[in-house]
Specification:
Elements (H helix, E strand, L loop, with lengths): L4 H30 L5 H34 L3 H23 L7 H25 L19
Length: about 150
């Protein structure tokens, strides 16, 4: 079954909401980790792992479902796809790097890296929603130009 542009938009926006919830869980863990509350780093690490897994699954889903629709949406489709591909490449690299953090050597610096990544992901989702997921870009209706009257 092929999904309509509106269904794809709705699906991806739902995934963004779920990712934002997971980011909120991570944000809540920062204060405890910064205060060196016992067990807080393990909780943060578990939440980060869940977020990374969900993000990577989401990226793959976007590339499978959203990418082809955005590419054909309008004259800027190719540019949007190029930007999406670059953001996904950067996000995958960041997940690989952050997954290797041990939170043992310099906890404050490592927490800053995670916090910066979380902010960047939030901004990327906001931009994607404006640039790729708006109803002006992903439309269910077909626009036909009247070739007789213009």
């Amino acid at each position: 079954m092929e999904l309509s542009a509106g269904q794809i938009r709705s699906l991806i926006l739902d995934e963004h909401a779920m990712l934002r919830d997971l980011l909120e869980d991570i944000q809540e863990s920062f204060a405890d980790a910064e205060a060196r509350t016992p067990g807080s780093v393990d909780r943060l690490t578990g939440r980060m792992r869940r977020f990374y897994e969900a993000l990577l699954k989401h990226i793959t889903h976007e590339e499978t479902v959203l990418r082809p629709v955005v590419a054909e949406a309008d004259a800027w489709g190719a540019a949007r796809v190029e930007k999406m591909d670059e953001e996904h490449r950067v996000q995958r690299a960041a997940v690989r790097a952050l997954s290797a953090l041990t939170f043992t050597s310099d906890l404050d610096a490592e927490l800053r890296r995670v916090r910066d990544f979380a902010r960047a992901i939030g901004k990327d989702m906001d931009a994607e929603e404006r640039e790729c997921l708006s109803e002006e870009v992903l439309r269910d209706d077909v626009i036909v130009i009247d070739t007789f009257t213009g």
